[in-house]
Amino acid sequence: MSPLSLNIVPLNLEQLTGRSQNHLRELFPGHWLHGDVVEPYLQLVDRASKEGISLRLASGFRAFERQLAIWNAKARGERPVVDGEGQSLVLGDMSKSEQVFAILRWSALPGASRHHWGSDMDIWDSGAVSDAYRLQLSPEEYAPSGPFYHCSRFLDEVIASGETGFFRPYSGKNTDGVAAEPWHLSFRPVASICEAELTPQVLRELIENTDICLQGAILENLDEIYSRFIVLKC
Ligand SMILES: [Zn+2]
Predict the structure, then answer these.
(1) Rounded distance between C-alpha atoms, residue 62 and residue 30, angstroms
(2) Average pLDDT of span 183-210
(3) Pick the residue with more confidence: 62 or 3?
(4) Which of 49, 112, 192, 208 is deepest in the core (most CB within 10 A)?
């Protein structure tokens, strides 16, 4: 069956926001994808291997609690927050709203990460680097001088063909939204259903009921957050 003609069941709210894992299948220890994404992903891996690329998952599903821990650590200054050029930012110099938007450039709002759905993944090419290589998931690694440029070009072609259902939601074209992430792939037949389900109201209720740093500033700016960082413009 073509991956584009799957009959996909919409996620419930717990699944949609990363608080349930019963829509997932474990590919290998610690790496989970939506049940309907496993087969298309394995076909993509197979196609890549024919081009000499060892496509690997850096990260598939990510739980709400994990995204919340990342968010809170950044808001508390325990993890670095960087601008679009990779320069470190000092959150203490900013208003609460500015802090929210600075974190959103590279980190999804908990509950709104596409990684909650299991339809999205960060990938790399393990054959292009040594076993000791420490993966960064940085733009430089996927640029012409980087080790994963061949992999990135392969993905460009696969996406352009429209045959697999995969695309890159963070192309960088939305310059005041999420930064370009050439390593982030999304399986459209599943993700497009999730996108439609994840409304501002769903997020508002979730954030109101979550112990999260910058909660007031998130709620104040939720409509702008939604239109800039959650709705795709590509
Ligand atoms: Zn990602």
Answers:
(1) 10
(2) 96
(3) 62
(4) 112
Residues within 5 Å of ion ligand 1, judged at the Cβ atom: 122, 184
pTM for the full predicted model: 0.92
> What is the whole-number distance in angstroms between the Cα of residue 122 and the centre of ligand 1?
5
User: What is the 179 CA–ligand 1 centroid distance (Å)?
Assistant: 11
20 torsion bin: left (phi>0), alpha (psi -120 to 50), beta (else): beta
Q: List, in sequence order, the alpha helices (H) in 9-120.
A: 13-16, 38-49, 64-75, 96-104
> How many angstroms is it from 137 CA to the middle of ligand 1?
9
Rounded distance from Cα 9 to ligand 1 centre (Å): 23
Question: On the CB side of 105, how many CA atoms lie within 13 Å of its CA?
Answer: 20
117: CA distance to ligand 1 center in Å? 11
CA 108 to ligand 1 center in whole angstroms: 9
In contact, 123 and 56? CB cutoff 8 Å: yes
pLDDT at position 2 is: 58
The whole-angstrom separation of Cα 203 and Cα 216 is 13
pLDDT confidence band for 178 (50 / 70 / 90): confident
58 C-alpha to ligand 1 centroid (Å)? 9
The rounded radius of gyration (Å) of the Cα atoms in the chain is 18
Domains in the chain (CATH in brackets) are 13-230 (3.30.1380.10)
